Amino acid sequence: MLAxxxxxxxxxxxxxxxSNAMLAPISASPVVSFASKKPSSTSLVMASTADxxxxxxxxxxxxxxxxxxxxxxxxxVKTADVATTLFPIWTVLFTGIALKSPSSFAWFTxxxxxxxxxxxxLSMGITLTPQDFLDVMKEPVAVLMQFSLCYAMMPALAxxxxxxxxxxxxxxAGMVLVGSINGGQASNLCTYIAKGNVALSVLMTTATTVGAxxxxxxxxxxxxxxxxxxxxxxxxxxxxxxxxxxxxxxMTTNKFxxxxxxxxxxFAPVVGVVSTCLLVASAVAQVAEPIISAGLKLQFxxxxxxxxxxxxxxxxxxxxxxxxxxxxxxxxxxxxxxSAFGFLLAKLHFGQYAARVPSxxxxxxxxxxxxxxxxxxxxxxxxxx
Length: 385
What we know:
17 helices
């Protein structure tokens, strides 16, 4: 800032120095009388030079203010980048607070929960343009691939892990339910952090959310023999309110007010991280006791479900010819499930209380796994084929 502000001052005083050098022999001459009432040419030159020197000093103040603002903004950008990189730590911190003091997030009611999801999606929407979605829709194979990972691979993996760890039938049902639900909205933020394809992630989230209307009940019936009714109208309305509408508003703002979006874009990741941490903490606070009492016997299979889901979600697309960006996007989308929705379904439609515990445990591991993958990939350069 000082360097920038100092440049015009140097330019202003340079001619002053030259003028003084030229005046030195004149002022030494005995012909010039400074006591004369009539101003000498020397005094006139000196006065004009002084005036010239004062003008740039008056103009330097706005430049100093601009330089200070830029310095503050640059400091914020660096701080925000570090804060985003520490996303997994914030997730653990908020989860710990919610487990230790669930009442701390009692204020985060359903209305705030919905608003938090909408804010998360809006922060992603301003990074997108309609052309991004048109480009993705030209190659729908990626969406179909992730849809199959979400509703074929993940339910099967949940069933295998549940039986491998010898879970009782109620917890096994809850595990399968976690594997059978749609992708979570927080996956869009993690995709953004991981330098994935946000438009593709949004389309995948929307596709699996709409697909949950018929896929989740069907899978639970096939694998568990349990009938899990799903409120199709409710899911459709929630998808419109929480996913599609904020994304559309964000894209519209980006299209018609690009200057405004450019100014607020650096704040989008911070809004997304704060929203996600509050959403995770709120969901954990509601079921803090079941999570604590679940024990390692349930913690490990739920962790492996999300971790292995992310690994397979990345490796299978890469092995079948998808690029690095698409594979990262599918991995995060597959790993991160809408665990809060699974908890609600278990609470409403599964008779045994224990069936909802896997979804509660999943809230923590889902967010932690997705955020860790996002931060790791954030610092691995993308080498697209």
